[in-house]
């Protein structure tokens, strides 16, 4: 069973539907027992870093998630990926989960072409930087769907794939131990996204 963490932030229905379309058992939960029983855990997220981290803290699940991430495959999606980092700088400075070394910073601060729209929204191709089992069914150059204004930085050692936006190599996929993160939304990335979720389910 794949547990999707319910902490009041994220598009849980489309993610759950995508997993079920793959024939996978998925459960949206915030129950500690169900998270411990799960074979894999997904942390979704939509919105602002600080607000999401506060809601996650309120659930009391952070110590459990840190414990479980050492034992089983764990995937953060979009804001869920950003929360994996040490620090986020969205409306102030906020502490993340610390699974992935690095910071989450405003994309606008690094774009040289100020006419480029932020949020970075829409389809962009994935440049795979290093081989990983998460790409078992995904090829270099395939397109995935992004919606974000902030991105992971100073994380080269954990970066598996990027997408070019203007002069910026947006961090697309990260990994640290049993923890993976995708800045794009696999559940909104068509067949490519489904294949990535399938690979995650086989890790």
How big a fraction of the residues is strand? Answer: 25-35%
- Helix and strand run: EHEHEHHEHEEEEEEEEEEH
Shape field: globular
Please give the count of helices: 6
Work out the number of β strands.
14
Q: Quaternary arrangement of the chains shown?
A: single chain
Indicate the mean pLDDT.
Answer: 96
Poorly predicted parts: none
Biggest sheet strand order reads 2-1-3-4-14-13-12-9
Q: How helix-rich are the residues, as a percent range?
A: 25-40%
Termini separation? 13 Å
* Biggest sheet statistics: 8 strands, mixed
Structural class: alpha/beta
Radius of gyration: 16 Å
Describe this entry's structure for a reader.
With 203 residues, this protein is α/β, with parallel strands linked by helices. The chain contains six helices and 14 strands. The strands form three sheets. It has an eight-stranded mixed sheet with strand order 2-1-3-4-14-13-12-9. Strands 6-5-7-11 form a four-stranded mixed sheet, with helices on one face. Strand 5 and strand 6 form a beta hairpin. The longest helix is centred in the last third of the chain and has 13 residues, at 190-202. The protein is globular and about 50 Å long. The protein starts with a strand and ends with a helix. The mean pLDDT is 96.
């Amino acid at each position: 069973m794949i547990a999707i963490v319910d902490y009041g932030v994220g598009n849980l229905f489309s993610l759950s539907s995508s997993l079920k379309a793959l024939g996978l058992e998925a459960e949206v939960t915030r129950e500690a027992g169900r998270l411990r029983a799960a074979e894999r855990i997904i942390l979704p997220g939509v919105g602002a870093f600080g607000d999401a981290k506060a809601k996650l803290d309120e659930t009391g699940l952070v110590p459990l998630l840190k414990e479980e991430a050492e034992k089983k495959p764990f995937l953060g999606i979009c804001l869920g990926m950003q929360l994996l980092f040490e620090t986020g700088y969205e409306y102030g400075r906020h502490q993340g989960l610390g699974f992935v070394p690095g910071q989450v910073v405003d994309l606008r601060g690094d774009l040289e072409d100020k006419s480029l729209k932020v949020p970075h929204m829409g389809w962009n191709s994935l440049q795979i930087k290093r081989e990983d089992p998460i790409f078992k069914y995904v090829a270099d150059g395939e397109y995935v769907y992004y919606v974000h204004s902030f991105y992971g930085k100073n994380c080269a050692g954990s970066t598996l794939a990027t997408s070019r936006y203007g002069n910026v190599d947006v961090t697309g996929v990260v990994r640290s131990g049993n923890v993976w993160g995708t800045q794009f939304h696999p559940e909104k990335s068509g067949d490519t996204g489904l294949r990535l979720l399938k690979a995650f389910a086989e890790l």
